[in-house]
Amino acid sequence: MSENLQGKTALVTGAGQGIGRMVALTLAQRGADVAVSDINLETASKVADEIRALGRKSEAIQGDVSKAGDANATVSKAAEALGRLDILVNNAGITRDGLLMRMSEDDWDKVIAINLRGTFLCSKAAVRIMAKQRTGRVINVASVIGLRGNAGQANYAASKAGVIGLTKSIAREFAARGVTANAVAPGFIRTAMTDVLPDKVKEEIMAQIPLGKLGEPEDVANVIAFLASDDAAYVTGQVLAIDGGMVM
Predict the structure, then answer these.
(1) At residue 181, what are phi and psi to the nearest 5 degrees?
(2) Is 234 part of the annotated catalytic residue set?
């Protein structure tokens, strides 16, 4: 694997498991030192240990990205522990699914708070550092659901569509400072969340995917690693769907 992130530092939120964990490990495998943020310190610490085993520096940070104090502290701790901050991957996210007519305000507010407000708060704290460095990469994990909507996921779709609009705005505001901002929009990726789906639901999902299979966390991590690298220096304000062709 190419070590095209040698000398770079990164912060990945929601990195205690699933896609976030794979993103953190992939960035480390490609040479970056990586701070691991999660609401669960135990899982974050395990991932940080895996990164150190790869010979990279790491720091496990506990925090709730929807709280301004936590978001600011997380970014500050990451930059302090690693010496600088070159890459921010806003991956932290949740779902609270339900049909619109039955969706509680609390389920709406919680999803927007973590998925959209959290991305805003962490990005705001990180770009302050990156703008001074005159270099940086902000990579936000959106979703194909933010591009196409989905029955039973109005809150999630709205949050991820918001992340896409936020990403484009960051890209326009900070391009002159050498900071790029891009989003990835994963489709159905094989994680603990999809493993529990009934076989019939999985079959219905497969029928919507031209490549005929679920994606793997590595598929998302590899695209994020590209966007984090100098190979993507001229890419900003883009949304890359990692979905096997679902929304082509």
Answers:
(1) -140, 125
(2) no
